[in-house]
Design brief:
DUF4615, 7 helices, 66% helix, mainly alpha, extended, 136 residues, 0% strand
Length: 136
């Protein structure tokens, strides 16, 4: 599975926006394939659109045409989704509650238990007699 496109190092603002739009469309198509029950024809169209959007050889006009055909006004949908996510994050931040950790809880959680391996349980004298380098 190919991950969303990463921004090449020297991109202008508009190029960066284009890559965000392409990534969003690919993500939506993949999400739709995973979650919605689609007909074989719809699945084939989605796979073809993903292939076109990820292609380095496809021209910009073709990618925009595919995005418009699959999503309509994809920029508006992206903005609506961004606003929705922002609202959810703000609500989560408002409802987040910080509680002080009590001293006894802090003491209990500071203990670390490590299992000893079998080799470290043996005495050093016993371990020394079992293994030797035999170079001569």
């Amino acid at each position: 599975k190919k991950l969303p496109c990463e921004f090449p190092p020297s991109l202008s603002q508009s190029d960066e926006q284009l890559w965000r739009e392409v990534d969003w469309c690919v993500e939506q198509l993949e999400l739709g394939l995973r979650t919605h029950k689609s007909t074989p024809k719809q699945a084939e169209e989605a796979y073809r659109a993903i292939k076109t959007l990820r292609s380095d050889k496809a021209v910009l006009a073709k990618k925009r045409q595919v995005m418009r055909a699959m999503f309509g006004d994809y920029r508006k949908k992206m903005e609506e989704e961004r606003q929705k996510q922002l609202k959810l994050m703000q609500e989560a931040a408002k409802s987040a509650e910080v509680t002080e950790v009590r001293e006894n809880a802090r003491r209990r959680s500071s203990h670390i238990f490590r299992r000893r391996s079998e080799a470290s349980r043996k005495s050093p004298s016993a371990a020394g007699s079992e293994f030797r380098f035999n170079f001569f």
